[in-house]
Amino acid sequence: MTAVADGPVTAFEDNDLKPVGFGRMLRKEDPRLIRGRGRFVDDVQLNGMLHLAILRAPMAHARIVSIDTSAASAHPKVKLVVTGAMLAEQGMAWMPTLSNDVQAVLATDKVRFQGQEVAFVVAEDRYSARDALELIDVEYEMLAPVIDARTALDPSAPVIRDDLEGKTDNHCFDWQTGDAAATEAVFASADVVVSQDIVYPRVHPAPMETCGAVADYDAVEGKLTLWSTSQAPHAHRTLYAIVAGLPEHKIRVISPDIGGGFGNKVPIYPGYVHAIVGSLLTGKPVKWMEDRSENLTSTGFARDYIMRGEIAATKDGKILAIRTHVLADHGAFNGTATPVKFPAGFFGVFTGSYDIKAAFAKMTAVYTNKAPGGVAYACSFRITEAVYLVERIVDCLAQELAMDPVELRIKNFIRPEQFPYTSKTGWTYDSGNYERTLREALRIAGYDELRKEQVERRARGELMGIGVACFTEAVGAGPRKDMDILGLGMADGCELRIHPTGKAVVRLSVQSQGQGHETTFAQIVAEEIGIPPADIEVVHGDTDQTPFGLGTYGSRSTPVSGAAAALVARKVRDKARLIASGMLEVSVADLEWVKGSFHVKGDPTKSVTIADIAFRAYGAGDLPEGLEGGLEAQICYNPENLTYPNGAYICVVDVDPGTAQVTVRRFIAVDDCGTRINPMIIEGQVHGGLTDGVGMALMEIIAFDEMGNCLGGSLMDYLIPTALEVPDWETGFTVTPSPHHPIGAKGIGESATVGSPPAIVNAVIDALKPYGVRHADMPLTPSRVWDAMQGHPTPPI
Amino acid sequence: MQVPAPFEYERATSVDHAIGLLDRLGETARLVAGGHSLLPMMKLRLANFDYLIDINDLHGELGYISVEPTQIRIGAMTRHRELLESQVLADTFPIFGDAERVIADPVVRNRGTLGGSLCQADPSEDLSAVCTTLGASCLIRGTGGERVVTMEDFHRGPYETAVGDAEMLIEVRFPVRPHGSSAYEKVERRAGDWAVVSAGAAVWLDAGVISDARVGLAAVGPNTTGLPAISEALRGHAPSEELYARAGAIAAQTCRPATDSRGSEEYKRHLADELTRRALRRSVARIVADDPGA
Ligand SMILES: Cc1cc2nc3c(=O)[nH]c(=O)nc-3n(C[C@H](O)[C@H](O)[C@H](O)COP(=O)(O)OP(=O)(O)OC[C@H]3O[C@@H](n4cnc5c(N)ncnc54)[C@H](O)[C@@H]3O)c2cc1C
């Protein structure tokens, strides 16, 4: 197993050559992106292209009485106006969601959330399309909205989903995990029990690039090409084939450069379907790009869990059991993107990094008159909520026991020799050394000094807080025996071809939204076959050019496709070995591999490089008996298990006692994602996720008024952090490779988003200790922190 | 991309040209200065106008900070950034620098103007609070000539000013008195956000006693508010923590905040108190630092 020593980043001049494999190198895609030469969906310009705009519901719940589109249709630049009724005639008014629910493509009967799609216009330009929306006259009959998830199941609550046969309430699903009776028994006899209501409010990933598509239906070829902002182009293609009835080989989905996804671009949105319908009906390419408000109000939100956490322990701080009850708000349609057997995602890892006796979780999910979604914003399929719950409740316990939160955690960690460790909710953690990781964070932070400083500051009336959070994630979905999305198994393909001159192309099923796949995957292949990353072209995001797979989300690219890339490279290397044995006229057993070439054991002068071998593979002369020409391979990798990245985060905050403003002074993040392929990219992922965490902990919330009007519909209302709100991140690492992953790598894409909110909240609560505060919900805006200081912390919803 | 409704556009070549266009086109026309308040509203289609009259070419005519013995005059087209970078303002009215550092972001400050800020009349507008605090007055010109109105008369309610349809704000005048200083305090949820509450203070000392003091608050009522009761309470007293506390209490009582996503009414009243104290304290500390004899 390779443990990578961290070196300095390579200079620009030699970036293309070094490292031949793992190590720091600048990203191959950046020259394009930094120079403004990226190609995003909105950059696609086609001859005769038309523009689409969507009319959206202005209220949260209403019956559609009538729609008059005549004035819009009469607009001189308008080519097409489509309503739900027109789609219904084609049987296309509804489409499946990724959670086996249905969602309206255009509303026919009712609108069920503010921002829902009601009609669309296709016009010669973007301005006219938008102008024409104002000419559509919709008559609505207002209905009472269901906004507070807590009252959604009241018998008097209006039924939102009356489109579903026999539906008489707003119940979405129930789910549970763990052993209720065993957990109850432990709780009943425990010395100490702490319980706490904890809300993880609705937030939105707000990627820099909003969602959009360009659909181009070629009636002559019968082929549809769709450029779209998709994190999962193959899965989308299959679903379009099933829903629209177009043959799958006549659909090409291209995800070009994507300006951030975070899960926001996993679902199929009605707008993509509108663009397809628009192109089919007009015979012209049609572009739809949503604006910022549309993105914030109608596309995949995240979280929205109202939780009660309970923890049982001995009085000397041995955690015995954790129990939780969750009320999940799924909005108007269950549009959660999650493996089907996991309606609550991987929330089952709420037992965290601790070795405990019993655990139980029970969840009720409800429909409300809000936008659908649920799994987005780098949450690793709800692990964000799970980690927040456990790391908050453990801190509540530490406060109750008057124990240092670090000491309490160390006392309860799963120990290195316990791996593989099967948790009380049935998850098999692959590897980790939690204490070592936490101790590294303590070292970087100077934890003991910080506690001393805190004592001094408190004596002066200053409010300084130190927050600790340790997390374990379960990423890389997933083993196909357990995991599929709408019947599509979560295994991923990879193809590698070495060209005759020794350059290579590797084709992935996953899709980068900024994570740096073009670099990381080139490095994975480079490590295995010993040619420089610069010589390896990484192709992704085009269903006509890449093997099938389920795409990038849930930190799955490196755990799943990264494994596929390493294994396909080994397959190629195995073939290269056979060819080399022929070229060097020795048996395979007499060959030795040194990165990039085979040589005869004991005689390094007799050697052939991968380029030599490739030229022979395609060239003249005989190959060893039974060997086909060419040097390429393909593979479909089915992960054996998930990988379990983990980390220890420490946050230091200062709270202004007069204004209750929180300043994040320091943040130390020590991550263990197993083998580190490109440490610079890892740090970039961590920096981004930590910044997200500051946003969620301190300012972000998608709130609604009592009528269901979204209060976070612009970036003036939905705040995301800037460089001024974040400290200089201090990152560190430990390396505990995954034993079942071919290169020992675990995912890193979401660790920091998962781990940072509890560290920050724990720090703020620690700062407020003189006020006797035990918990306050996010977002910890000055006003909400002040409420907590006054002794009445309020839930945000 | 959010796109506005169709409109016609013309660039004014002089103040008189701009006023002539306003006069001719009536209330369907709007001036555009920095555009940082107007254009977002148009893109969200919260406001639609048939005509935009761009006055950015008048920066030569209306972009100035001119110092006279008893007043400083600032042209309506002076940009946030110019206010921030002005040494004479930093020396005379440090409140400008305090406020400008926390208004929006550099991109907005490069374009946004003093005139646009005041004419937008947003209740959270920071420069309006600064002008209120400094007892500024506004020079308005129309087809019928010029008039000067005080800040109290300039703002008529949220998003409403004394500037008529065929009128334009030309300049803002600030009286200058010796032995004084000023400061601005703002609480925002994030850099570049509008104020949860902000407070400006200006204080003048005479032989260790407050000869005059003014406090202006933003985001706690329909308009940025001047608080004459505080001026009365402070005049004739030596500065002290108790005095600031009394001023803070008046601010908390007299302001009229509303609960919204920036904060609760209760918290905003608390901030009005806290920030008033801080702004007064800092103003006095500045006078003493500059002018130990005052
Ligand atoms: C992201 C962002 C954050 C911001 N944050 C803050 C903040 O924290 N604090 C703050 O105070 N402000 C903030 N602003 C507002 C910013 O300061 C604006 O620039 C300012 O309010 C308006 O100035 P402007 O020159 O851009 O006006 P414009 O948008 O051009 O005009 C605003 C209005 O004034 C009228 N007008 C302009 N000039 C004149 C004139 N000479 N005579 C008559 N009418 C005129 C226009 O017709 C229009 O109705 C923010 C703006 C943005 C975009």
The end-to-end distance of chain A, rounded to whole angstroms, is: 48 Å
Radius of gyration of chain B: 19 Å
Overall body shape of chain A: globular
Number of strand elements of chain B:
14
Helical stretch tally of chain B: 13
Q: H/E element string of chain B?
A: EHEHEHEEHHHHHHEEHEEEEEEEHHH
Q: What's the β-strand tally of chain A? A: 34
Identify the overall geometry of chain B: globular
Q: In what order do the strands lie side by side in the largest sheet of chain A?
A: 3-7-1-14-11-12-13
How many distinct folded domains of chain B? 3
Largest sheet of chain A: 7 strands, mixed
| Unreliable runs of chain B | none
Mean pLDDT of chain A: 96
**Distinct ligands, ions and cofactors found in the model:** flavin-adenine dinucleotide
Number of helices of chain A: 18
Share of residues in strands of chain A: 15-25%
**Secondary-structure content class of chain B:** alpha+beta
CATH class of the largest domain in chain B: Alpha Beta
Mean pLDDT across the residues of chain B is 96
Structure in words:
The complex is a heterodimer of chains A (797) and B (294). Helix content of chain A is 27%, strand content 24%. Chain A is an alpha+beta fold. The two termini of chain A are 48 Å apart. Chain B has 3 domains: 8-54, Uridine Diphospho-n-acetylenolpyruvylglucosamine Reductase, domain 2 (2-Layer Sandwich); 62-175, Uridine Diphospho-n-acetylenolpyruvylglucosamine Reductase, domain 3 (2-Layer Sandwich), CATH 3.30.465; 180-290, Enolase-like, domain 1 (2-Layer Sandwich), CATH 3.30.390. Chain B is built from 13 helices and 14 strands. Chain B has helices at residues 15-25, 38-43, 59-62, 80-85, 87-92, 94-101, 106-111, 114-120, 126-133, 151-154, 228-234, 241-254, 265-290; strands spanning 8-11, 29-32, 51-54, 65-67, 71-75, 137-142, 145-150, 155-157, 160-161, 167-175, 180-187, 197-206, 209-218, 225-226. Chain B has a 5-stranded antiparallel β-sheet. In chain B, strands 11-12-13-14 form a 4-stranded antiparallel β-sheet, with helices on both faces. A 3-stranded parallel β-sheet of chain B has the order 1-3-2, covered by helices on one side. The longest helix of chain B is centred in the last third of the chain and has 26 residues, at 265-290. Bound molecules: flavin-adenine dinucleotide. Residues 30-38, 40, 76, 103-104, 108, 111-113, 115-117, 119-120, 125-127, 163, 168-169, 192, 194 of chain B line the site of flavin-adenine dinucleotide. Flavin-adenine dinucleotide (FAD) binds next to strand 2, helix 2, helix 7, helix 8 and helix 9 of chain B.
